[in-house]
Amino acid sequence: MNRLFPLLVLLTGSLNAVEPPRIVGVPPADAGRGLVRVSEIEIRCYPGKGGGQFLQSTDNGLTWQTIDLPSSYPDATCLAKESPSIEQNPNTGEFLRIEPLYRRKDNEGIYLSTGGLDGQWRRVENAVGKPVLISGILRNSLWVNDRKRVVVPGHGGGCWRWFSDDQGWTWKRSNKVNAPPHKIGGGHLGTRWNHGMVEGTIAELKNGRLWMVARTAQDQHWQTFSDDLGGTWSAAEPSRFWGTITMPTFHRMKDGRLLFLWSNTTPLPEVKRVKKRGGEDVFTNRDALHAAISEDDGKTWTGFREVVLDEHRNDHDYAVTAGSNDRGKHQSEVVQLDANRVLLSCGQHPLHRKLMIMDVRWLYEKERHSNLAKDGAGEWSTHQYVNRIVGHCGYNRTPGALVRGDGLRLLRVDDESLTHPNQGATWNFPSGNSGLVTVKIRLEHASSKARLCLADRWFNPTDPTVPQFANYVLELDAKTLPPRKPHKVEIRWIDVDGKGFAKVTINGKPTRMDLPAVQDRCPNGISYLHVYNPATEIDESGFSIIATSATID
Q1: Is the pLDDT of residue 1 over 70?
Q2: Helical ranges in 319-402 per DSSP H
Q3: ∠ CA(105), CA(111), CA(117), 5° rounding?
Q4: Mean pLDDT, to the nearest integer, of 71-100?
């Protein structure tokens, strides 16, 4: 925990009063571009190609209304589901609009406003009257170097940056950086969609260095740095942030804190299959969006909390309902509302996109609790996948483990249509290098077994490979937990990043079940409990999770 935390609490009040993130609207396009602050009270969210209306809030993000686009606004030339990037120039107060993906249309290009968003838009052209086109799929603009330079991340089989020193009239491109392709091995019988290093997000550090973190096909986002304001970039390397084929987003708070939004998730292991055109197969890690915050320019981070879980994650028609577009909660963008609150847009697909307000003080909380009989499994991931790719790179789902009586019952089911018959459940809590997780659990039969894993990221509930990547693994059976009655299992870990052991207590009594740290490093701390039924045959009894709690030091 950052040493400035006590001061933050003193200045902002008790953390007990902090409201968790809440949904306030649905954006007209996939998150990532199009969310823009107009004034101290007005915020807009713009549509993609063919969209005739935008969302407007005149009470700083609390409520939203639909407004017709003025005739002066150039129609987008990107996809209907993707808005152009629209950012206010901090020097002039006018706006810079850039398309995310050029389709060689007559009105494509870069536009600069005169008279604001509802005024006139002038397309940037070269000396012979041709539109200036900066290639690639592009993200939001960022002004750096005391607002003297604007930088735009772009990609196409690797990442580069476009930059302008005259507020958007002329542009130059940096070198290209890339991450290596995903390979078979480590539980993978096939390779992932290898699209290179894409969808980079940039933060200007306080020493003037630029830091870019990007999406890759690896288990981690990769990073690169620039010491010349985006002109040249270092060779890419793995970052500390887990995330696979999902979009990361930096946001600098007005007080200097650095916010990071991403999907701290790992997909199911790849299976051997014939790849479809483009290499995409199925996405199994887009059901959660996470946030962390840093007060020391990215050296240490606090939070690693689930901002939102996809409300459709258990749906039987998850992959096909309302069309076959991309879906899930990954992709995001941010505007700040006040000292501690931000408005964020997240998600892909009209049924999955959300506008949310998050108080970043929520990221500093140190504990979380779950009572399954009282609260249900709404804050748990429990779904199982139907083993047939449908829609766009998707599996349909079943709810998986269900709350029965006083607890969440985890079985191994008799269903050959599923990718994995063993049920599991994944639960998030604030991250800590040291802490305590308590699980109230009951084995329902003398042959029942349970596996508890503590990890630093979200894994699919049904993923059988979690013990290879978790930080601590505890196997339980009737020898340690007499069946048909509840037991309190406590796992206390100290300094996981230093490979410290975890101590296990059962019903208040210490055991000799010391757990070694599985991984060599864990810079982000423990933030997940993954529970799993490891039965090798049909298990209709299983075990029940009655309650959980987590407290970090």
Answers
A1: no
A2: 372-375
A3: 120
A4: 93
Q: What is the pLDDT of residue 42?
A: 98
Query: What values do phi and psi take at 486, rounded to 5?
Result: -75, 150
**Residues paired with 123 in a beta bridge:** 111
Distance CA 202, CA 153 (A): 7
Distance CA 188, CA 204 (A): 36
Q: Let me know if 231 is exposed, middle or buried by CB neighbors in 10 A (0-12, 13-18, 19+).
A: middle
pLDDT at 300 over 80: yes
Cβ atoms of 286 and 246 within 8 Å: the answer is yes
Element (H, E) at 5: helix 5-12
The predicted model gives 344-352 an average pLDDT of 97
Helix (H, G, I), strand (E, B) or coil at 176: coil
Give the pair of three-digit tokens for residue 424: 């599991």
pLDDT at 158 over 70: yes
Question: Could you tell me if 48 and 83 are in contact, meaning their C-beta atoms sit under 8 angstroms apart?
Answer: yes
Each residue's pLDDT tens digit, 377-391: 999 999 999 999 999
C-alpha distances out from residue 98 to 78, 137, 186, 360, 552, Å:
10, 10, 41, 29, 43
* Cβ-Cβ contacts under 8 Å for 488 (sequence gap 6 or more): 438, 439, 440, 506, 507, 508
Residue 46 DSSP SS3: coil
Q: Would you say 448 and 532 are in contact if contact means Cβ atoms under 8 Å apart?
A: no
What's the whole-number average pLDDT of the chain?
Answer: 94
Cα gap 477→226, rounded to integer Å: 53
User: Hey, which residues does 68 pair with through a beta bridge?
Assistant: 53
| pLDDT one-digit tens code per residue, 235-287 | 999 999 999 999 999 999 999 999 999 999 999 999 987 665 567 889 999 99
Model confidence, pTM: 0.95
Task: Name which of 459, 435, 463, 453 is nearest 525 in CA terms.
Answer: 435
State how far Cα 391 lies from the chain centre. 22
Nearest-angstrom CA–CA distance, 8 and 20: 18
- Domains identified in the chain and CATH numbers: 33-138 (no CATH), 369-552 (2.60.120.200)
User: How far, rounded to the nearest angstrom, does the alpha carbon of residue 132 sit from its chain's CA centroid?
Assistant: 33
**Given its phi and psi angles, is residue 3 left (phi above 0), alpha (psi -120 to 50 degrees) or beta?**
alpha
Partner residues linked to 152 by β-bridges: 162
The beta strands (E) that lie in 35-174 are given as: 35-37, 43-45, 53-57, 65-68, 85-88, 95-98, 110-114, 120-123, 137-138, 142-144, 149-155, 159-164, 172-173
Residues 100 and 83: their CA atoms lie apart, in Å, by: 8
Check residue 276 and give its pLDDT: 58
C-alpha angle 452-454-456 in degrees, rounded to nearest 5 = 150
Type and span of the H or E element at 544: strand 539-552
